[in-house]
Write a structure and sequence with these properties.
One of its GO terms (cellular component) is cytosol. GO terms for molecular function: ATP binding; glutathione binding; glutathione synthase activity. By secondary structure, the chain is α+β, with helices and mostly antiparallel strands. The protein has one domain. 38% of the residues lie in helices and 16% in strands. The chain contains three helices and two strands; from the N terminus they run H-H-H-E-E. Strands 1-2 form a two-stranded antiparallel sheet. A hairpin with a 6-residue loop joins strand 1 and strand 2. The longest helix is centred in the first third of the chain and has 22 residues.
């Protein structure tokens, strides 16, 4: 976050104060999150390299969204010219919460955030 002294500058910042406290989390749901994360990572990897699928899914969006059109144009160029290198790196993050149903009192796993870097 920006400092009081430099409110108008984004290159000078400080970390926001926060506290992390240990919180019990059901092991069954933790293990479920670990298992599903591997499946999600594989799914996103497969989708990322299915160029025709991505182009088809965005065919209506590119008519009105210039940013997405630019990304699809880059994708088409990569598809036509081939990858410059064979190795890729994907950094993915998924955040989950433990949800307690108010009627059955059972706990379920809820995905709240999915990020790509």
């Amino acid at each position: 976050m920006r400092t009081r002294e430099h409110k108008d500058r984004s290159d000078i910042c400080q970390t926001a104060p926060f506290a992390l406290l240990p919180t019990p989390f059901p092991r069954k749901l933790f293990e479920q999150a670990v298992k599903v994360q591997n499946l999600i990572a594989t799914l996103y990897h497969e989708i990322a390299y299915d160029y025709d699928f991505l182009i088809d899914c965005h065919k209506e969006v590119v008519k009105t969204d210039s940013f997405t059109k630019g990304l699809i144009d880059i994708l088409k160029k990569v598809r036509d010219e081939g990858l410059a290198q064979r190795k890729t790196l994907a950094i993915q993050r998924s955040d989950y919460m433990c949800h307690k149903d108010q009627f059955s009192c059972e706990y379920t796993l809820k995905q709240v955030v999915l990020s790509f870097y």
